[in-house]
């Protein structure tokens, strides 16, 4: 028993999600669940052709109908969930790890190292991202590792800039100076002092980057340069079934398209809630 | 006689972000007669600014008027339409904000900002407006008004910005000025410039004013009447002389009691034994520092020396004060000693004869333990994400390897030592007041059982009453723990009451150093004289005396020069010897008891000049 | 100021140089043997070796890079691998088509989005602001090809108002072309509109929190003047950046839109040449896109420098 045992400890105040944020949380949770469990419950294999006729209407045997080659759309959507969410998440996490390590260390080490990292990030940011991806894919051809690494590198430069800016603001604060003067190690300063205050702004950035990953991967797949057949993510499903637009069987295109849209809207709803500045800060006379 | 402005039973509510409305100002009444200067005084959060802004019919975001009326020449300001308020603001009632730097639009030349009110209220247009703008700048003693009018705010100095904002407020010759802490952010020497301008405006134009301030000594110079506010109530009201001499309310007397006497040799508490018999614990030699930046391509961008060849000893158990205005380099000196800012090559910093590395990271753990640092801002000095016990416990873990109940018992002791209940251990910094947070910072520093604590403006962000209590605590702890303080401050009165020795810094150099009573008495450096003379006295009439003095006049003449070899103070010095001071570096002169002054004048010349003044 | 601008231009030039290196690396060094690619798998080793010699592929990479760069700078862009037609003849009309489409979208999107963003910021949390912010959150989340597909289904398939395929845009006859490219334009507008609205709103709101805005209010300035004279000049830097960012986004957006609507622009050419690995075409298309992108970023930064008196009068 020490003298502080049994005394009350304050709880951290956490903002509660509002209605829209809850909707976002439910959507994202569902997306993650699909990514994990989707392929396990899918009635058919990804490439299995189960019907002679393409664009079959939804029915008992095929709940959501068949696609351009007579494959089960539901099964392909469920399999596609894992690729879409998995690749986007992997790319974002990888991009964040690289970007944060670069950004935080630049903010704390400063000097030439910082200048160099900043220059590198600026250089990366002055390439149009889609073009960069096209060039990389043109030379290495498309595969999962290439896709994940390309998207991650695209993220890393921006994440590095954002985390550097956030960390610079905090690194200049007095409690970090005190820690430095106390003789804390670089790792301890980054982890104990700087990291906790950066979680919120970086969580917002993570959401934005995740949305971007999903959109970017879908776009590449849509262009035929992302996930290669017979595998499918939602973006390539849209591409495969584009000819449905001519026949009127819109559902084959709209289902994967809306799946992407709902997922990204869900992420953005959470981001909006995290990023919302609480309280009024402008004169009522200006707002009225 | 009907009052010119009458605020009746004003009730204001405030709401923290996403919180509920709470009453913050309770039935306040204020009257201002034509041409009268009324001061609203109190600590932060007392509701002074909120009440003053009611004269403009304005409630800040997050506040609203609940009740009460504000009559300006018989018209109720709070009942006015938005269009009527627009007419009133800037023309009849004008506002001068605390921070001119933030309140001047960075994208508009200052002349246009001044002329804007003239246009808005159709007082003057075109060439006429330009002429009046120049006149206003001239009225406020701004040199080269035509040139300044064309400049953007960032191209003007801090004192100028504050006077430009005065000119802006005076453009339409309003009958009431609301001044919101107009000199709080300024150095004492700059404060005199602005106070002088305010005083002459009140005298020459007969403008009535509401002067919001926390500083009784400043208010004593400008106010006819004082209203003391505490937690949303007006607690006492009266003529300035009556409040100063014969305060009736306890709270007013507390405020008056917290005002420190002006620095003078008689007020000092010097212990001359601190430097005898032992060796200095920290010794700094040839310390220079700059914020030069090396870029990727190896070039050095704009080298700016902030410390020039500093030599300084810190003796065990002493309080060594380092004083100077903002930008004098005193905080950088503390950072150099703490290993937070590496000095330029050639510097030699020792701790008990052990050479210290320039960077904290290269010092040994024990060296680090023996020097602790406490910073200014209660908002920043504690990690908002970590509880109090975590903050205080960290040095215990790091330096003494404590853990478990040993650590927690020690944390409880340390909290009690700084006058806090051990219950505070589980709280987050956001749940503590500014003074309490500063106490936690002190406990954290003492947890390391250091030999020297570097205190960088530790009291300046606190209200006077709170600051006085923290200062008492620091004095007690120094006695009980036998620790030395390096006390960085711009506040000479506080320094006089705690320091054994003083080093006065100007433009990155120590220009005057010695025992406090020696430094604060002539003969001393002309800059020390200027600093001491610029500290307002808690009596009426001080400002009139000082603005006519030679020192103040010279002090207002120019800005600080950081660079060159000769005496950096020569542009503002009343005793400048042209041909000498601007050519040669000032020599170090010994004035007895180890009192060193960097000046071309010798002891007798300084004594003659300064005793006469 | 000039120092800042010159430095920015220099950086831009450096970036362009880096882009040429990257493009060269990506297209000439990494993908294996160009000679093999030209001649196909059936070629004998002798003919491949001869072609390698002829193309100068045996020289060290840096030498080949400078030869390549010198050729590009001299206007010799090479021939397409697919059909042997000189690249400059293929891309000329494509560039014009792409620029026309992007311009069409910009002219509509820019004034509209800036206005909507300002209106949202002028009455934050008002009905209009709530409406726009909940609409925009959906539009920024939806991929451009999804927007395009929905537009095609509604306006081309069901209503039949506009064509869904633009094989030959007739930019010689502007009214016709505007109708032809209405859906591609609308897709591009919808993708950047929401971004600009949101970011303009945020930039202006940020400025409106500053003490000098309160000062202007207390000088008796009306709201319109506060926003136009006091807020906008200070928000200009961020707004210009937002606009540049989104125009730059058009570079990506246009690629996808051109593919969906089979519009004969540079973007579709780029995608096709990536699929067929037509290297000279990829190189030139990538350089054109990157050059445009870099130029856009530079002009945004220079505008931001000019708009900010602190930078304009920097020493």
Number of helices of chain B: 23
Distance between the termini of chain C: 7 Å
How would you state the average pLDDT of chain B, rounded?
86
Largest sheet of chain C: none
> If you average the pLDDT of chain C, what whole number results?
82
- Uncertain residue ranges of chain B: 294-301
Oligomer: heterotrimer
What Rg of chain C do the Cα atoms give? 24 Å
Strand percentage of chain C lies at under 5%
Helix/strand/pairing category of chain B: alpha/beta
Structural summary, described in words:
The complex is a heterotrimer of chains A (288), B (613) and C (315). Chain A has 288 residues and is mainly α. Helices cover 70% and strands 0% of the residues of chain A. In chain A, helix 2 (73-109) packs parallel to helix 5 (144-171) and helix 4 (129-140) runs antiparallel to helix 5 (144-171). The N and C termini of chain A lie far apart (58 Å). An 8-stranded mixed beta sheet of chain B has the order 18-19-20-15-21-22-24-23, sandwiched between helices. A 6-stranded mixed beta sheet of chain B has the order 6-7-8-3-9-10, sandwiched between helices. Chain B has a 4-stranded antiparallel beta sheet with strand order 2-1-4-5, with helices on one face. Chain C has helices at 2-29, 34-39, 45-55, 61-73, 87-122, 127-141, 144-158, 174-180, 182-208, 211-218, 223-260, 266-275, 279-307, 309-312. Chain C is flat, with a radius of gyration of 24 Å. Chains in contact: A-B, A-C, B-C. Chains A and C meet through helix 4, helix 7, helix 10 and helix 11 of A and helix 1, helix 6, helix 7, helix 10 and helix 11 of C.
Which tags fit this structure?
heterotrimer; B: 613 residues; alpha/beta; eight-stranded mixed sheet; 36% helix; C: 315 residues; mainly alpha; 78% helix; flat
Which SSEs are present, and which pair or pack?
The complex is a heterotrimer of chains A (288), B (613) and C (315).
Chain A: H1 19-41, H2 73-109, H3 111-125, H4 129-140, H5 144-171, H6 174-182, H7 186-222, H8 234-240, H9 244-247, H10 251-275, H11 284-287
Chain B: E1 5-14, E2 22-32, E3 37-41, H1 48-54, E4 63-72, E5 75-76, H2 82-88, E6 93-96, H3 100-103, H4 110-120, H5 126-139, H6 145-150, H7 158-170, E7 176-180, H8 188-205, E8 208-213, H9 216-222, E9 225-230, E10 233-239, H10 240-245, H11 250-258, E11 282-290, E12 293-294, E13 300-301, E14 305-314, E15 319-323, H12 330-338, E16 348-351, E17 354-355, H13 365-370, E18 371-374, H14 388-400, H15 404-417, H16 434-447, E19 452-456, H17 464-481, E20 484-489, H18 492-498, E21 501-506, E22 509-515, H19 516-519, H20 526-534, H21 542-547, H22 550-555, E23 588-590, E24 596-598, H23 603-612
Chain C: H1 2-29, H2 34-39, H3 45-55, H4 61-73, H5 87-122, H6 127-141, H7 144-158, H8 174-180, H9 182-208, H10 211-218, H11 223-260, H12 266-275, H13 279-307, H14 309-312
Helix pairs in contact in C: 1-4, 1-13, 5-6, 5-9, 5-11, 6-9, 7-9, 7-11, 9-11, 10-11, 11-12, 11-13, 12-13
């Amino acid at each position: 028993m020490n003298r502080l045992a049994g005394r009350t400890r304050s709880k951290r105040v956490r903002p509660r999600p509002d209605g829209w944020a809850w909707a976002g949380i439910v959507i994202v949770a569902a997306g993650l669940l699909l990514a994990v469990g989707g392929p396990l419950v899918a009635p058919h294999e990804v490439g299995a052709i189960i019907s002679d006729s393409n664009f079959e209407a939804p029915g008992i045997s095929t709940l959501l109908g068949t696609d351009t080659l007579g494959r089960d759309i539901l099964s392909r959507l469920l399999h596609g969930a894992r690729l879409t969410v998995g690749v986007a998440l992997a790319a974002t996490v990888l991009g964040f790890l690289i970007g944060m390590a670069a950004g935080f260390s630049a903010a704390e080490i400063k000097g030439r190292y910082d200048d160099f990292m900043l220059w590198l990030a600026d250089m990366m940011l002055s390439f149009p991202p889609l073009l960069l991806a096209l060039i990389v894919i043109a030379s290495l051809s498309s595969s999962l590792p290439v896709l994940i690494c390309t998207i991650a590198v695209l993220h890393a430069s921006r994440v590095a800039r954002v985390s550097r800016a956030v960390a610079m603001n905090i690194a200049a604060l007095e409690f970090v100076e005190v820690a430095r003067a106390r003789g804390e190690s670089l790792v301890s300063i980054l982890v104990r002092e700087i990291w906790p205050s950066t979680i919120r702004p970086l969580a917002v950035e993570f959401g934005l980057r995740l949305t971007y990953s999903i959109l970017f991967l879908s776009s590449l797949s849509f262009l035929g340069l992302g996930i290669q057949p017979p595998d499918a993510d939602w973006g390539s499903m849209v591409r495969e079934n584009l000819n449905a637009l001519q026949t009127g069987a819109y559902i084959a295109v709209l289902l994967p398209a809306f799946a992407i849209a709902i997922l990204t809207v869900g992420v953005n709803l959470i981001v909006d809630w995290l990023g919302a500045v609480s309280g009024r800060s402008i004169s009522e006379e200006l707002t009225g | 006689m009907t009052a010119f402005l009458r605020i009746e039973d004003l009730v204001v509510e405030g709401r923290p972000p996403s919180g509920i409305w709470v009453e913050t100002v309770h039935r306040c009444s204020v009257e201002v007669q034509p041409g009268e200067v009324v001061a609203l005084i109190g600590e932060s959060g007392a509701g002074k600014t909120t009440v003053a802004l009611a004269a403009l019919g304005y409630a800040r975001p997050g506040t609203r008027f609940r009740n009460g009326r504000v009559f300006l020449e018989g018209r109720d300001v709070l009942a006015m339409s938005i269009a009527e308020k627009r007419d009133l603001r800037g023309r009849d009632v004008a506002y001068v904000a605390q921070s001119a730097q933030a309140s001047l639009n960075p994208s508009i030349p200052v002349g246009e900002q001044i002329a804007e009110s003239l246009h808005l209220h159709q007082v003057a247009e075109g060439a006429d407006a330009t002429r009046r703008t120049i006149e206003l700048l001239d009225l406020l003693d701004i040199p080269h008004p035509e040139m300044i009018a064309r400049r953007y705010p960032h191209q003007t100095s801090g004192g100028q910005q504050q006077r430009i904002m005065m000119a802006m407020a005076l453009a339409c010759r309003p009958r009431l000025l609301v001044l919101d802490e107009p000199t709080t952010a300024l150095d004492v020497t700059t404060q005199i410039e602005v106070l002088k301008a305010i005083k002459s405006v009140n005298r020459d134009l007969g403008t009535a004013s509401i002067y919001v301030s926390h500083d009784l000594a400043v208010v004593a110079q400008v106010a006819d009447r004082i209203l003391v506010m505490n937690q949303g109530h007006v607690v006492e009201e009266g003529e300035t002389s009556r409040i100063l001499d014969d305060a009736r309310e306890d709270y007013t007397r507390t405020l008056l009691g917290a005002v420190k006497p002006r620095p003078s040799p008689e007020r000092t508490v010097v212990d001359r034994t601190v430097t005898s018999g032992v060796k200095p614990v920290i010794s700094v030699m040839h310390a220079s520092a700059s914020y030069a930046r090396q870029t990727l391509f190896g070039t050095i961008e704009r080298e700016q020396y902030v410390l020039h060849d500093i030599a300084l000893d810190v003796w065990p158990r002493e309080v060594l004060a380092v004083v100077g205005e903002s930008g004098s380099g005193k905080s950088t000196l503390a950072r150099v000693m703490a290993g937070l800012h590496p000095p330029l090559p050639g510097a030699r910093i020792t701790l008990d004869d052990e050479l210290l590395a320039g960077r904290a990271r290269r010092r040994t753990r024990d060296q680090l333990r023996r020097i602790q640092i406490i910073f200014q801002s209660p908002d920043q000095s504690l990690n908002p994400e970590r509880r109090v016990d975590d903050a205080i416990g960290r040095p215990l873990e790091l330096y003494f390897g404590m853990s478990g109940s040993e650590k927690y018992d020690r944390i409880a002791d340390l909290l009690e030592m700084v006058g806090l209940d051990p219950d505070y251990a589980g709280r987050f910094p956001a749940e503590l007041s500014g003074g309490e947070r500063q106490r936690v910072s002190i406990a954290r520093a003492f947890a390391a059982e250091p030999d020297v604590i570097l205190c960088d403006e530790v009291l300046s962000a606190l209200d006077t009453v709170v600051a006085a209590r923290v200062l008492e605590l620091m004095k007690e702890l120094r006695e009980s723990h036998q620790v030395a303080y390096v006390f960085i401050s711009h506040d000479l009165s506080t320094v006089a009451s705690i320091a054994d020795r003083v080093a006065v810094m100007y433009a990155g150099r120590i220009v005057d150093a010695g025992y406090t009573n020696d430094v604060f008495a002539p003969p001393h450096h002309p800059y020390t004289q200027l600093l001491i003379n610029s500290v307002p006295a808690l009596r009426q009439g001080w400002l009139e005396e000082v603005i006519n003095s030679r020192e103040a006049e010279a002090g207002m003449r120019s800005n600080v020069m950081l660079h060159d070899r000769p005496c950096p103070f020569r542009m503002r010095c009343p005793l400048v010897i042209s041909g000498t001071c601007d050519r040669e570096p000032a020599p170090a002169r010994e004035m007895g008891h180890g009192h060193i002054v960097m000046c071309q004048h010798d002891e007798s010349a300084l004594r003659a000049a300064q005793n006469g003044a | 100021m000039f120092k800042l601008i010159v430095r920015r231009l220099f950086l831009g030039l450096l970036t362009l140089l880096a882009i040429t290196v990257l493009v060269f690396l990506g297209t000439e060094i990494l993908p294996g043997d160009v000679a093999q690619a030209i001649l196909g798998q059936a070629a004998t080793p002798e003919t491949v070796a001869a072609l390698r010699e002829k193309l100068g592929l045996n020289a060290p990479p840096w030498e080949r890079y400078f030869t390549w760069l010198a050729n590009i700078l001299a206007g010799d862009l090479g021939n397409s691998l697919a059909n042997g037609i000189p690249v400059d003849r293929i891309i000329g009309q494509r560039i014009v088509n792409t620029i026309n489409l992007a311009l069409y979208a910009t002219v509509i999107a820019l004034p509209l989005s800036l206005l909507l963003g300002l209106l949202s910021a002028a009455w934050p949390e008002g009905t209009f602001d709530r409406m726009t912010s909940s609409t925009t959150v959906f539009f920024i989340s939806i991929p451009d090809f999804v927007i395009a597909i929905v537009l095609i289904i509604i306006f081309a398939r069901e209503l039949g108002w506009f064509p869904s395929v633009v094989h030959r845009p007739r930019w010689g006859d502007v009214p016709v072309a505007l109708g032809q490219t209405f859906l591609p334009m609308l897709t591009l507008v919808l993708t950047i509109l929401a971004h600009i609205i949101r970011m303009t709103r945020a930039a202006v709101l940020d400025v409106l929190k500053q003490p000098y805005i309160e000062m202007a209010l207390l000088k008796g300035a009306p709201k319109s003047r506060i926003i136009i004279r006091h807020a906008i000049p200070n928000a200009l830097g961020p707004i210009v950046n937002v606009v540049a960012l989104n125009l730059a986004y058009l570079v990506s957006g246009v690629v996808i839109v051109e593919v969906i609507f089979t519009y004969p622009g540079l973007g579709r050419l780029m995608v096709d040449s990536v699929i067929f690995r037509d290297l000279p075409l990829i190189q030139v298309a990538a350089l054109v896109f990157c050059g445009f992108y870099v130029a856009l970023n530079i002009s945004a930064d220079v505008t931001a420098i000019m708009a900010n008196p602190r930078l304009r009068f920097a020493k």
